[in-house]
Amino acid sequence: MIRLVAFDFWQTLLADTSASGAAANALRLAGVGDALRKAGHRYEPAALEAADVRALARLDAIWSAHRDVVPAEQVRIFLGALDPVLPGALGAEELAAVADAYASPVLTHTPVVAAGAVEAIRTLAAAGLTLAIISNTGRTPGTTLRQLLARAGVLDAFRVLSFSDEVGARKPLAEIFHRTLAGAGCGAECAVHVGDDPVNDVGGARAVGVRAIHYLPDGRPGAESATAVLRHFADLPALVSRLG
Questions:
Q1: Predicted model pTM
Q2: Rg for the chain, CA atoms, rounded
Q3: Residue 149 belongs to a domain with what CATH number?
């Protein structure tokens, strides 16, 4: 019997477009530059863009090992890529202003909530199932992603929120799945995970014994190891019931 339904966040519950992602990153760099200028450190846009590329290369190296860092460390990585002395030159309030500018652009260039996702979440919660999020984060930390869930009206439906910047591990590592199961008080045999990525979501879930629903609204074939394929969120409550 299924008691826990876990969801991926990006490209499953909410999705960025290439345009919204680029706009958010441009706002991020402009906001960071403005915060630094107010702190007495002026950098040209080209320098901020170059630092962003260097910082992303370092973050990609961490992420490729399926690990993650806390938001404050990610900001320090960016500032160090801009100027090695900069992280130590800013006071606590100045660092907080930079961190806010770094993390908040997604609240302006908001990703799109998947059609039917809100209704499916409410239906599953009303049926007494425990709901969770298992999500790798990028430039936007879990604290900000919670605000997006609140805007969608579903934050209070989730009992466990496992964001990689808070757990320190990224999918498909077993650690982030085990943390979620423990937080929900549920064994792998009683859980199902819904996500779009064949490696991080399907492979990660199946490796720990959790059933995996591959979310593919575009009609592509599902991963061979997936327990089921989901095309429309409207079908999810009935699919979970059948699997249970």
A1: 0.95
A2: 19
A3: 3.40.50.1000
